[in-house]
């Protein structure tokens, strides 16, 4: 029986070295291959001319470079971009690019759907199917960078990457870590270390592990300053309450002088947007190097929430700033193509395990 081919996009630099050693080759073949794959964006082994003909033939037999398929590529009037990417049997995920004057941020997904069920998020309504593979996570970067005509030397178009699309990256720990390593690796996408950010709803034990194995920047979806409210908005809080989450975040940046935590806080009209909430939030973050991203809620069909009034958002931000916190209000981008935060829907063949999983998480 023919054995399945190894998709080289699934392999970290170290995995790739081991792969070549197993073929009886020297580990530096990994360097050559990664340059073709990530710098030149060549996926055809036959074109990798600094590998011997025999090795190219063996690669063709044993390996492949298989990318997911872009089924829709939409540009917004404001320059944002959204790709709908098909993975398998009807499952699609979304990847978004957001250009700003000083940076270009690519927002990638880590799971098909999401098991966390946050009450204000469109992805939650889709249910959960499965974790993405490393190839599917880095494949999003590869495809977006080709589509945008990104350059490696000279001006880059993608300068920042956030794991802030569909899914909870820390519930797909190993693949998220390998994928972010490839984003930061000079032989991979070569994005500067602190410009690769993993966003989490707060899987506390995974945060302790992450510090040991990764150098990604951390964004944490907080959304509420007290447990009662956060339990309602982010059900994962029932398992890992705020005090435990903050302790894990402090530990994550301890002894890293220039690092801080980015806190995401989606503003929901009449729910979490009062001045009291802002004061409580400021008190909570008092001793943690922090930046707060205030995100005006983006509505989606069927939601019970509304976006806070601009004046309420401005007041909330002013309370934080007056207490010495760096707080910015994120501009809503890509509205016209449903590419804004929390609007990523894709097409998820939910497996009906979400409630079960949630029961496990909450137990
Ligand atoms: N599971 C991870 C990664 C998903 S990113 C996490 O929770 O961090 C999710 C981010 O999208 C949240 O922090 C939130 O800021 C944003 N978001 C989700 N739904 C939203 C909505 N309807 N409007 C605005 N932002 C939303």
Question: Which ligands are bound?
Answer: S-adenosyl-L-homocysteine
Question: From the coordinates shown, what is the CATH architecture of the largest domain?
Answer: Alpha-Beta Barrel
Shape: globular
Computed over alpha carbons, the radius of gyration is 21 Å
The chain-level structural class is: alpha/beta
The CATH superfamily label of the largest domain reads Aldolase class I
The tally of domains stands at 2
Overall pLDDT confidence: 91
The order of strands across the largest sheet is 3-4-5-6-9-10-11-12-13-14
- Along the chain, the helix and strand elements come as EHHHEEEEEEHEHEHEHEHHEHEHEH
Give the amount of beta strand, in percent.
Answer: 15-25%
* CATH T-level topology of the largest domain: TIM Barrel
The main sheet comes to: 10 strands, mixed
Counting H and I runs of at least 4 residues, what is the number of helices? 12
Distance between the termini: 44 Å
CATH class of the largest domain: Alpha Beta
Please give a handful of descriptors for the protein shown.
363 residues, alpha/beta, two-stranded parallel sheet, ten-stranded mixed β-sheet, binds S-adenosyl-L-homocysteine, DNA polymerase, domain 1, globular, TIM Barrel
Briefly, what is this?
By secondary structure, the chain is α/β, with parallel strands linked by helices. The chain contains twelve helices and 14 strands.
Description:
By secondary structure, the chain is an alpha/beta fold. The chain has two domains: 6-64, DNA polymerase, domain 1 (Orthogonal Bundle); 69-362, TIM Barrel (Alpha-Beta Barrel), CATH 3.20.20.70. The chain has helices at 13-22, 29-39, 53-62, 122-125, 134-148, 173-184, 204-213, 227-233, 242-253, 275-284, 310-322, 354-362, and strands at 6-7, 63-64, 69-75, 81-88, 91-100, 103-107, 111-113, 128-131, 160-163, 196-200, 217-221, 261-267, 290-296, 326-329. The protein has a ten-stranded mixed sheet. Helix 7 (204-213) links the parallel strand 10 (196-200) and strand 11. Helix 5 packs parallel to helix 6 (173-184), helix 7 (204-213) packs parallel to helix 9 and helix 10 (275-284) packs parallel to helix 11. The structure holds S-adenosyl-L-homocysteine. Residues 120-122, 164, 168, 199-201, 221, 264, 266, 295, 297-298, 341-342 line the site of S-adenosyl-L-homocysteine. The site of S-adenosyl-L-homocysteine has 16 residues, from strand 10 and strand 12.
């Amino acid at each position: 029986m023919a054995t399945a081919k190894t998709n080289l996009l699934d392999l970290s630099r170290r995995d790739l070295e081991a792969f070549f050693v197993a073929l009886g080759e020297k580990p530096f073949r990994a360097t050559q291959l990664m340059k073709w794959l990530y710098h030149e964006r060549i996926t055809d082994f036959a074109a990798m001319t600094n590998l011997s003909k025999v090795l190219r033939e063996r690669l063709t037999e044993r390996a492949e470079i298989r990318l997911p398929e872009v089924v829709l590529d939409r540009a917004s009037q404001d320059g944002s971009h959204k790709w709908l990417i098909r993975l398998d049997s009807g499952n699609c995920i979304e990847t978004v690019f957001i250009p700003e004057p000083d940076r270009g941020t690519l927002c990638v997904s880590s799971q098909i759907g999401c098991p966390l069920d946050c009450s204000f998020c469109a992805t939650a309504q889709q249910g959960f199917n499965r974790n993405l593979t490393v190839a599917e996570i880095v494949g999003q970067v590869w495809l977006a960078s080709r589509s945008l005509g990104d350059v490696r030397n000279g001006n880059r178009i993608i300068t920042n990457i956030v794991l802030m699309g569909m899914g909870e990256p820390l519930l797909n720990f190993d693949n998220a870590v390998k994928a972010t390593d490839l984003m930061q690796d000079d032989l991979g996408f070569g994005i500067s270390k602190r410009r690769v950010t993993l966003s989490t709803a707060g899987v506390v034990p995974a945060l302790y592990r992450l510090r040991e194995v990764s150098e990604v920047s951390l964004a944490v979806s907080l959304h509420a300053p007290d447990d009662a409210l956060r339990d309602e908005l982010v059900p994962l809080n029932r398992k890992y309450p705020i005090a435990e989450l903050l302790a894990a975040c402090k530990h994550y940046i301890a002894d890293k002088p220039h690092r801080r935590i980015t806190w995401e806080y989606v503003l929901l009209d009449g729910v979490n947007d009062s001045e009291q909430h802002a004061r409580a939030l400021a008190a909570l973050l008092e001793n943690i190097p922090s930046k707060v991203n205030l995100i005006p809620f983006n509505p989606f069909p069927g939601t019970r929430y509304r976006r806070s009034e601009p004046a309420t958002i401005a007041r909330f931000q002013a309370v934080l700033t007056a207490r010495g916190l760096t707080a910015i209000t994120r501009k809503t981008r890509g509205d016209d193509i449903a590419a804004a935060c929390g609007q990523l829907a894709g097409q998820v063949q939910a497996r009906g395990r979400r409630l079960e999983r949630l029961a496990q998480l909450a137990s």
